[in-house]
User: What shape does this take?
Amino acid sequence: MNIYDIARESGVSISTVSRVMNGHTNVSAEKRNKVLSVLAKNNYVSSGIAKSLVLRSTNTVGILTVDIRHLHYANIAYTIEQEMSLRGYNVILCNTGEHDEEKAKYIKVLAEKQVDGMILVGSILSTPLIHDAIKRYFPSKPVVMFNSNFKLPNVYDICSNESAGIKLAIDHLVERGYSKIVLVIDYRTWVAEDKIERYKRGLAEHGLPWSKDSIIRVSSGFENGQNAAQVLLQRGIAFDSIIGCDDVTAIGMVKEFAAHGLRIPDDVGIIGFNNSVFSQVSTPPLTVVDNKSSTVGTSLARLLTDVLQGRDVPHSTSVYPELVIRGSV
Amino acid sequence: MNIYDIARESGVSISTVSRVMNGHTNVSAEKRNKVLSVLAKNNYVSSGIAKSLVLRSTNTVGILTVDIRHLHYANIAYTIEQEMSLRGYNVILCNTGEHDEEKAKYIKVLAEKQVDGMILVGSILSTPLIHDAIKRYFPSKPVVMFNSNFKLPNVYDICSNESAGIKLAIDHLVERGYSKIVLVIDYRTWVAEDKIERYKRGLAEHGLPWSKDSIIRVSSGFENGQNAAQVLLQRGIAFDSIIGCDDVTAIGMVKEFAAHGLRIPDDVGIIGFNNSVFSQVSTPPLTVVDNKSSTVGTSLARLLTDVLQGRDVPHSTSVYPELVIRGSV
DNA sequence: CTGAAAGCGCTTACAG
DNA sequence: CTGAAAGCGCTTACAG
Assistant: This one.
C-alpha cells in the first residue's frame, strides 16, 4: 500500500494526499477530511525512505563510541539520543571497539545510509585513519566530535579539558598532604598525552619530582584496576595517592588496596574520573573529576542540530571539569 | 554524484555500474576495472536509501529500551548491536522512558523509517498500548521482545524466567539461615507480579509466612535503594534479608544499612539481580541472580536475523537465571 | 556480457 | 485549491 492506493481510495491525486500527510494548508477541508479518514482506516504509514530520497535528508544521525557499556559513554549516548529525538532525529548507535578499521567501516556504512550527520565520542577516535575515512566518505555533512579534533571544514568538536582536571586533582591531593602521586592512563590518545604533560607540570608546580614509574598504563575496567593496584604494590613503587583514568578502574584499585589492608584515604588517596554512579557506589565514595557527561551529550546534540539547521556555531568548544569531593581523598 | 555520473565517466550503462558495485560476476574484466577505478577515483558512496527503496529492506533494525544508562540494558543493547553488525545490520537506539505514549511514538517512527525489524527490551514494554502500536504500525515485520510477550503472528519473545530466580534466591537465603525475607520490586509489570507470586510460594515452601509489609516498591537506582533501606528501618519492619530488584538499587541498600551500623551479610543478607559490574564493585561483593544479559542480547539478535532470513524459529523461548554467590549473603 | 526501460514511494514546482 | 509530470538514485527482469 502506497500513496497511490490512498489517492485512489480517496478520489484525489497523490499530490493532494502528500499535502495532507505533510499538513499543508492549501487543501480543501472536504478533501482533507476524506484523505485523513482513508489514511486512518488503513493505518497508513508513509515511507520515510522514499521521502528521504527526494528530500535528501534521513533525519537520522550516527553516533560512534568505543563501547556503550562504559557508563560514561552510556550517559553521553543517552543524552544525545534524547536530545536528538526531541528535535526529530533518530540515532544509529555504533560500538566501534578499539580497532581503527572497524571504526572506518562504520563511517562508510553510515555514509551509505545517508545519515544527516555523525557524532564521534571519545579521543580514541582521533586517528589518521578516521580522519581519512571522514574526508573520503563523509566529506560535506556535519560531524561533531567529543575529545577529538580534525581540521576539516565539516568537522566540529567539543573537548573536555581533561588536563585541567588533572591540575584540579593534583592541587587537591597536595592540599590534603599527599605527595607521591601516581597517574593512571588508559588509551594512548592525545588526551592521554595531554594529561601526562599536565601531570608533570602540575607536580613541578608543587616542587614535586616525577618518575616514569609513577605513570602507569592500563585498560579500563574493574578487574584491570585491581591488577593495576597489584602491580603497583608488587613493584614496590613509592606512592601515596592515585589519579585514576576513570571511575570503574579507580574502584578496582580501591578494592584491591583494601584487600591488602591499606586504608582509603588514610594510606592511599584516590581520585576517579567521570563522576559516574560508580563513584557513589564505591566504599568509600570516590572523590572525582567530573567531566559532566550529560552536559556534554546535550551540547554535542545541539551543536549538530545547529549546524544541520544552518546556524552559525564555533568549530571548537571547551568544557571544563570540576572536582567533586567525596571520601576517597 | 550518482550512478549516472559514474556510468558516463566509465563509458558504460548504469546497469553495469550497479552490477560491479554489487559484485555481480557477469561483467567483463575490462569494464569492471574501468568502473572500479572511476568509483575509487571519486570516493563514490552509493545511496543506501535508493537501494532500500527498491529492495524494500533497510538493513536497519530498531531497539527500544527504557534507558540505556542502566547497565543491564546497556549490556543487552551492546550485544545486540555487535551481533547485528556482524550480520550486516545497523541499529537505531531508542530510549523510551517510562511513558507509554513515548514508546508508541518511537514505534511509529521506526515503522516510517522502514526498519526491517524491532527488538523491544524490558517487561515494561508489555502494555496494551504497545500491543496496539505494533499491530497498527508494525503489523507484519518481525519484532522480538525480551521479557514481554504478545500473541501476534509477527512477534517473538525471549523471556528470562525471573520467578525461577526468586526461587533460587529464597532457597539460598533460607539455606544460609535467613527467614525474614523482604522482596524489592521496581516496575509494575507482569514480570514483577510473577516474582511476587513466586516469592509468596517460595516462602510457603519453607513454611515461612509473608506479610504485605515485606514487599516494597521502589524506583530503580542507587539513591532510591538508599531511601528504600531507610524506609525499611524507619517502619520497624522485621527483616533479616533482602532480594533486590537490581544491582544498583541493592547496593544503595547495602550502603545505607552499613551507614546504620548493620553488617552485611551478618545482620542482613542481600541478593542483587542482573550480575552487572556493580555486584563486583560493591562492598561486600553482591551475591546475585544472574539473568545473563550478554547471552540474552545475542539470542535476541539471532532470533531477529533468523526470522528475517526466513528461518523457522520458536515464537517463545525461556532462559533460566543462575545464582552467583559472592559475599552479601 | 550489456543496456534501455520500468519501477520502488515519495515531493514539489508548474500550470490551471 | 488541484493534478500531471518530473525527478530523487538505485535494481533487475528482459531482450539482445
Notes: The mean pLDDT of chain B is 96.
